[in-house]
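Backbone-to-sequence.
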């Protein structure tokens, strides 16, 4: 029958992807980098446990509990996170990412456990853009505004600032040019403008 509850339930289950988010890697040694947006510090670290919800890291310098961090794990991409607990030179991180990101991470963990090759992901090196050393950005009208880095990636950055340039406006951060892509609570999102190389 068209209104049968059994048929509706079966259809809903059929279109809902089933993803096991309890999967995890334990006893591993994944090379990783830990970035602290509040201080622009970056450290090499090792991930000994990884799940779609968080990771345990071993690092010579551990940020204080509650710190917001960004973790880059070779083969698993980048994760916005916070420090849940600290014990000596190890820390437990909790990921603050979308459900889609968690599903992607779960799939990559399952691929690793099955012995399949992981996709290549961008591993941040020690050489960064001039962005971390700068605390001001310039506007086309000559105004200079202060900011704090909330998050940064290869393609752009999230800045905490009282200045709210219009979306699409070009700004300059040190030697890096960017374009405002959206406004967020307490700041702006900026996309870096890449200069095309001549052939």
């Amino acid at each position: 029958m068209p209104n049968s509850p059994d048929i509706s339930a079966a259809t809903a289950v059929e279109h809902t992807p089933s993803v096991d988010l309890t999967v995890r890697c334990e006893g591993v040694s994944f090379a990783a980098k830990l970035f602290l947006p509040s201080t622009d510090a970056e450290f090499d670290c090792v991930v000994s446990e990884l799940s779609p919800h968080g990771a345990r890291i071993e690092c010579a310098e551990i940020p204080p509990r509650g710190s917001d961090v960004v973790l880059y794990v070779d083969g698993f991409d980048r994760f916005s996170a916070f420090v849940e607990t600290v014990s000596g030179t190890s820390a437990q991180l909790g990921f603050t990412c979308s459900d889609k990101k968690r599903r992607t991470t779960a799939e990559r963990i399952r691929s690793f456990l099955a012995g399949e090759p992981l996709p290549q992901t961008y591993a941040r090196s020690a050489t960064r853009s001039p962005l971390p050393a700068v605390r001001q950005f310039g506007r086309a009208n000559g105004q200079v505004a202060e900011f704090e880095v909330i998050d940064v990636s290869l393609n752009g950055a999230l800045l905490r600032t009282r200045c709210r340039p219009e979306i699409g406006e070009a700004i300059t951060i040190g030697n890096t040019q960017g374009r405002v892509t959206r406004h967020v609570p307490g700041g702006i999102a900026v996309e870096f403008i890449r200069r095309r190389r001549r052939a």
